[in-house]
Amino acid sequence: MGGEPTSGAAGAPPAAAPGSGGTPKAVGIVWALLGLNTLGSAGAKTVVPLPRSLIQMATMGALVAAFALALALNPRLRIRASAFLFLLTLLLVPSVIASVQPDVGFGALFRCTRLAVFVGTLWLLSHWWDGGLTFVRYHIRMYFAVLVLVAAGLVVAPGTAMPEYYGGRLVGALWPLTPPQIGQYAAIVIGLAVLLVLGRRTTAGSAAVVVVPSLVLLAMTHTRTATLGLLIGLVLAIGSLVLTSAAARRFFAWAVLCATVAAVAFSSALRAWFLRGQSQENFANLTGRAKVWDALLAEPRSTGEKVFGTGLGDKSFDGLPIDNSWLAVYDEQGLIGVVVVAALVVVIGGVALLRPPSLPRACAIFLISYCAISSYTEVGLGDASAYLLHLALAASLLVAPAPPAPLLVAEIPRRRIPRWARR
Predict the structure, then answer these.
(1) Count of CB atoms within 10 A of residue 411's CB?
(2) CB-facing half-sphere around the CA of 369: CA atoms within 13 A
(3) Which DSSP helix (H) or strand (E) runs through 386?
(4) Rounded Cα gap, residues 390 and 364, in angstroms
(5) Cα dihedral angle (310, 311, 314, 315), rounded to 10 degrees?
(6) Calpha distance 179→165 (Å, rounded)
(7) What are phi and psi of 290, to 5 degrees?
């Protein structure tokens, strides 16, 4: 997924090797600001009503601050070549072409600018991508902080945090977060923390502090997509470590045993939790999503709209959420956007399969699997979102480490020996 770092300035002095203890702590701040930008501005009602314009100012301000700080940390524009970032940049082409149409509106151009700044920040951060686990720790800390905020809202206002209009599912009471968002963050934190334990990069006690409350919050969201993504992603990730890790083999065996016992002993309770009180017809219809998908595909479109889309929007159709990344990309960025996003997922997934077994590879497989599964009922692969941030983390884990710089040995001057002494 990457090659040697390149520099935007010829003759610049060599910088510290990425990841070799030379990653500035401020890089973690940039990553957290990118995560803040992807939280969004629409969601549940909060304890203190927050104007949407104020939330948008905070999220966009976080993106601008992330880009400015990344540029300050990397003023010589040292970047690492990446097929992932190249395809992500290529996705801007259909986005801009569709968004510059006169009848689209200013909002589409604004979202294109946001995506461009988001991608530009990732390019600046790529200088520190080295296949290490530094960004994994950034990711866990960032989203666990969001989960702590959700838990605080549950303690402060339990009625607001579990409203009836969401069927009693957990939402953000202090920041407008929906149940699928909270479930996604919890699943990502749990999966990455479990893999770090199996790779002996953290202690079981430290991981339990993160995993246990995240599991509770995930269960309270009743989010089926996040639960399935977590389980399948962990199975694939741990399976990639089975041949090289005894800890992974033991965990896999115990997990299969516990899952079998739980499926037999609590089958009715698990089925009730999974259905969430819905009828079989509503469940088969994916809670009404299939009707929106059929209407979107049946909508008459011009050739330009089919090829380039209708411009970046709010991922809705006729006022209803699309809730499918591929159809949202088709609607907003056309067939070209679908091809680019598919190539992005295939390339990064193929690179993960070709890498030798390792903990970073397992983390990347988990993230890619989770995003691929969630793309069926969630949106975000075609715009600045948490899903693109997950895939960017996976890309950073698949970068081949740069070879160590050769040691410069000073030449020892030869001592002059008198002619008479040579005899």
Answers:
(1) 6
(2) 26
(3) helix 386-397
(4) 9
(5) 50
(6) 12
(7) -60, -35
Please, are residues 200 and 157 in contact by the beta-carbon 8 Å criterion? Answer: no
pTM of the model: 0.87
User: Using an 8 Å Cβ cutoff, are 179 and 222 in contact?
Assistant: yes
Q: Where are the alpha helices (DSSP H) in 162-313?
A: 179-198, 204-221, 224-239, 246-265, 267-275, 280-284, 289-298, 303-308
Copy the structure tokens of residue 154. 């549950």
Q: Supply the angle between the helices 325-354 and 83-90 in degrees, to the nearest 10.
A: 160
Query: Is residue 351 within 8 Å of residue 394, measured between CB atoms?
Result: no
Q: Is the pLDDT of residue 143 over 60?
A: yes
Distances (CA, A) of 79 to 2, 34, 164, 301, 384: 10, 18, 48, 40, 20
Instruction: List, as one string, the DSSP characters of 265-279.
Output: HTHHHHHHHHHTT--
Between CA 177 and CA 61 the distance in angstroms is 19
Closest CA to 319 of 300, 295, 303: 295
Q: What is the mean pLDDT of residues 374-381?
A: 90
- Written as six digits, the tokens of 11 are 């003759």
With a pLDDT cut of 70, the percent of the chain lying above it is: 85
Report the C-alpha gap between 315 and 66 in whole angstroms: 24
Side chain identity at 349, as an amino acid letter? Answer: G
Neighbours of 307 (CB within 10 A): 16
Nearest 5°: phi and psi at 29? -65, -40
Tell me the two tokens of residue 317: 């159709």
**What string of H, E and C letters represents the secondary structure of 10-70?**
CCCCCCCCCCCCCCCCHHHHHHHHHHHHCCCCCCCCCCCCCCHHHHHHHHHHHHHHHHHHH
pLDDT digits (tens, 9 = 90+) for 28-69: 999 999 999 999 777 778 888 888 888 889 999 999 999 999
| H/E stretch holding 87 | helix 83-90
Q: What does the alpha-carbon distance between residue 99 and residue 112 come to, in Å, rounded to a whole number?
A: 8
Is residue 363 within 8 Å of residue 369, measured between CB atoms? no
User: pLDDT per residue over 99-116, tens digit each?
Assistant: 887 777 788 888 999 999
Other beta carbons less than 10 A from residue 76's beta carbon: 12
The whole-angstrom separation of Cα 226 and Cα 221 is 9
Q: Are 142 and 148 in contact (CB under 8 A)?
A: no
